[in-house]
Amino acid sequence: MIGMGILQPVVALLAWTMVMWVWMYATRIPAMRRSADVDPMTKVGGTGRQLDDILPERVQWVAHNYNHLHEAPTVFYAAALVLAITGQGDGMNAALAWIYVALRVAHSLWQATVNRVLVRFALFALSAIVLVMLVVHAAIAVF
């Protein structure tokens, strides 16, 4: 179908988000069990942010990245759907979408492991530039 190539990177980023979800719980739940301050079986209420003061930073880095995958990528999903619906989701826009996904995966891996802020910001900034390009192309397609 014409314009649907962009849906592949959309699904890839959706799948990557689920990988980060599994990684988050695979590290966070054992860390909570090891902590004297929180028992995940009996804890009532609270927010993930409250765990920043209790759990090791490295565990929370994964959780923070999972949250980040629900912020700017939502704009990516909307722009990609607009481009697909208007038949503009192939060629350069599909390539830009794959670049965006690659940068977001690199951002995730960096944040969840090394987390040097300058590099993390550079990856985020590059992905934001690509995202702006996709949004501009979506605007051109509908206006």
Automatic annotation (TrEMBL):
SUPFAM superfamilies: MAPEG domain-like. It is found in: Membrane. The keyword Transmembrane applies. Keywords: Membrane, Transmembrane, Transmembrane helix. Its main location: membrane. It holds the Pfam family MAPEG. The chain crosses the membrane at residues 6-26, 121-142. The keyword Transmembrane applies. GO terms for cellular component: membrane. This is MAPEG family protein. It comes from Tsuneonella aeria.
